[in-house]
């Protein structure tokens, strides 16, 4: 069990009565709050250790490099990557997926090839593949959702063909909370020789991820959704693939030698980290990973699962609520609508009660189309949320809805 009282003390954002912040923060799938340990680390880095990495021979620069590379080590360990050189620092999941699309797919694919995704994707794992298909002449196919809003995995041979060159899939849906059978699908993708990409933006913050067990070729996630700073994310890639690829961006840091007419490339992972990287942010993410590992990821997952079950039981007391992901949902993500009330209006009223919930299409417009709505309300939990906060949400929702009726 998580010691929530003690955890909450680590989050200055949650301090009651500062008059600025919502007291109940339920938009964690979008971004999480940061513990004091991460804030202190960033502050300490900028106050005491700030220097550019991989460049200076002076002590401070070497210390900064050590902290930056140490963060890489922590992240490799967190997702069980075999080698640190598999971990590329990016700005986030979006940039990680774009890196694969531009530096692998757009170099390899040709007319007749197929890119396979799913109908459940966040736009970050959809739009880069649409652009890639247009540029290369490859076709874009997808595994559809069935009536239970799960991926239709019954007849995989309908979707995977010998022409499937890349298969990109969301691990855990940010708008439905569904956890996809990625390991099984990756195994299948391998039978047709496809390269596999997993969007782990929502899975890594909640659950212990093991990239070796998944055996995916690429895995992407964002630091800010797991207690870390914004502007830092991860692309995991199998070393042999990363080595075979051309750079994504170019300039300083990613080169080995440069003449006026040509250049050669640095080793991985630095070949993919052109320019000055997000040094303090990487160090901050390393601290966030330490924080989560101290809590234990199974305990984190259990806490989030328990809150979800509690909220799903209680949301039923509210008249006119339609929950889109009620069954077997322990994901920490609940999407719903209330009859006769636009989700934006609901969120604005709740904001007056100092409760932050998310509304909109959640960067998943195809899912909204499938649901037949333009937007849903979404609540999403993290380690510092409590059942009391859920009670407050439903109390306030009831009085808001009385106003509408
Ligand atoms: N993929 C999923 C499943 C997400 O939930 C998000 C963000 O909400 C992203 C990708 C994009 O992440 P970022 O904006 O950090 O690049």
Question: Tags for this entry?
Answer:
39% helix, Aspartate Aminotransferase, domain 1, 4-stranded antiparallel sheet, alpha/beta, 13 helices, 15 strands, 16% strand, 7-stranded mixed sheet, 405 residues
Protein architecture, described:
This protein has a 7-stranded mixed sheet, sandwiched between helices. Strands 11-12-15-14 form a 4-stranded antiparallel sheet, covered by helices on one side. It has a two-stranded parallel sheet with strand order 1-13. α2 (36-49) runs antiparallel to α9, α3 packs across α9 (279-295) and α10 (297-315) packs parallel to α13. The two termini are 40 Å apart. It has helices spanning 4-9, 36-49, 59-78, 93-108, 127-136, 182-191, 211-214, 239-244, 279-295, 297-315, 343-352, 365-371, 387-404; strands at residues 24-25, 87-90, 114-118, 139-143, 164-170, 195-199, 218-222, 233-237, 255-258, 263-265, 321-323, 333-338, 355-356, 358-360, 376-380. The chain contains 13 helices and 15 strands. It has 2 domains: 4-26 and 296-404, Alpha-Beta Complex (Aspartate Aminotransferase, domain 1); 39-294, Type I PLP-dependent aspartate aminotransferase-like (Major domain) (Aspartate Aminotransferase, domain 2, 3-Layer(aba) Sandwich), CATH 3.40.640. The radius of gyration is 22 Å and the shape is globular. It is 39% helix and 16% strand. The protein is an alpha/beta fold and 405 residues long. β3, α5 (127-136) and β4 (139-143) form a beta-alpha-beta unit. The mean pLDDT is 96. Pyridoxal-5'-phosphate (PLP) is lined by residues 30, 92-94, 122, 124, 170, 174, 199, 201-202, 222.
